Amino acid sequence: MIIVALTGNIGMGKSHALGAFAQEGAFTVNSDAVVAELLTRPEVVENVKFILGSGVLNEAGELDKRAVADVIFGDEDLRGAYEGIIHPLVFDRVNELIAASGVDIAVVEVPMLFENGYESQFSRTITIYADENVALDRMDEAGFSRDDAVRRLTCQMPIADKISRSDFTIDNNGAPEDVRPRVHQIYRALVAQGLE
Fold it and tell me: Which residue, of 102, 125, 159, is where some domain finishes?
């Protein structure tokens, strides 16, 4: 089995590329969806509240994803503590999903792959990239304020560094459909490598 990490900075199209890999036949895992699932578990809610404070809870006592993001993207130490709780749980869940899938190629969206030194846990790495202004415009369309978007981008490794450390890259500066041919090319390369 080939387990591939798909990364890139916020607003650069990771989720779009993940969907294209699913259309090619890969088993795909959206780590944001896994995190969202984990954040509903009572024990996780308690641990996160203990570290980040009760201000990250909504009126129903559930974690407010936007409030969590506001805290962790504003304080590097708290972000590290939060990730120390969440990331091991994410990897456990991702491994469970992949093991149950029975597929040859799995692609996992991992936003902070290189920042956290997780690349060694994957067979191959792919970075999708776009110019920062393109990414900021996309985040604006998604409802992020420009200040929030810039703050999130500055918490991530420069995209050029991610590109230099990856096995494959996808240019996502154009139209969404322009990503498909490159995804197809990479998927065929992964299939060929799996047959070696």
Answer: 102
Residue 121, both tokens: 């846990």
Q: Alpha helices, DSSP H only, in 30-158?
A: 31-38, 42-52, 65-72, 76-101, 132-141, 146-154
105-109, strands of its sheet edge to edge: 27-30, 105-109, 2-7, 124-129, 168-171
Task: Give per-residue pLDDT as tens, 78-120.
Answer: 989 999 999 999 999 999 999 999 899 999 999 889 988 999 9
Average pLDDT in the chain: 91
Tell me the CATH number at 20.
3.40.50.300
Token code pair at residue 104: 């040859």
Question: And the tokens for 117?
Answer: 């030194």
Q: Whole-prediction pTM value? A: 0.88
Burial of 164 (0-12, 13-18, 19+ CB in 10 A): exposed
